[in-house]
Known about the structure:
Elements: E1 3-10, H1 15-20, H2 30-45, E2 50-60, E3 64-67, E4 71-76, E5 88-93, H3 96-108, E6 113-116, H4 125-134, E7 141-149, H5 154-170, E8 174-180, H6 203-218, H7 221-234, H8 242-251, E9 261-269, E10 272-278
Parallel strand pairs: 1-8, 2-7, 2-8, 3-6
Antiparallel strand pairs: 1-10, 3-7, 4-5, 9-10
Amino acid sequence: MGKLSLAAKITHVPSMYLSELPGPHHGCRQAAIDGHKRIGERCRELGVDTIVVSDVHWLVNAGYHVNCNSRFKGVYTSNELPHFIKNMAYDYPGNPELGRLIAARATEQGVFTRAHEIDSLELEYGTLVPMRYMNGDQHFKVVSIAGWCAWHQLDESRRFGAALKDAIEASDANVAFLASGSLSHRFNDNGSPEEAIHMISREFFRQVDERVVQLWKAGDFATFCKMLPEYNAHCFGEGGMHDTAMLLGLLGWDKYDKPVEIVTDYFASSGTGQINAIFPLP
Length: 282
Ligand SMILES: [Fe+2]
């Protein structure tokens, strides 16, 4: 019998990769990198064998999709920010059995989902960035779920999350789930100064994000779930905040009431709001 051992909302900002390299931004995202490493260590302590990532950089226009190749290997350059992430080599094992089971369970429960084993279907950086820091030794198998659901209802992603929990429990895997996406996600205007990499784009977004983090710290998901659609609409939710809807669907939605554990404090990156937080299991 499988189990869910850890759930978290995480950042994946590409400046984490820049932070590793020599130059003016060297070290700038060390706190976020250390947070990923701590989450990876926690997964090891819990005996996790597979990390399932809802990746808001994987855009889908119809249906729900799981990338469950048996191996992910390549050299990645971001189309969107090639000056931030370029030529990043990666190599991780996959878990096709779990991916197929997730798609089958979600489909059975009314959320039509396809599982793909296509070598040329590559990972996006919402998966690759956290795996770089949590899984550099290829300890964990990886399954990636499309989290940028362009024409989908948040409620459907909630139901996908609930089905994901059932699939995990019906599997033989010990799983960590990562909702890989930001809080507010309004980038800085083009042409902003280089130092804006550490700024929020508008104070409004910081204020809303800070209130959201307060609700999370208080375990007040009854309130947070009520405001999620407007939070997404007014604060430019990354990938429509479908990663967050899946995470909360997995945990019980508005009945979930555990105060989150902040692993990396809220920070602004290129205009957006970011955090690493573990959501204790119900
Ligand atoms: Fe992103």
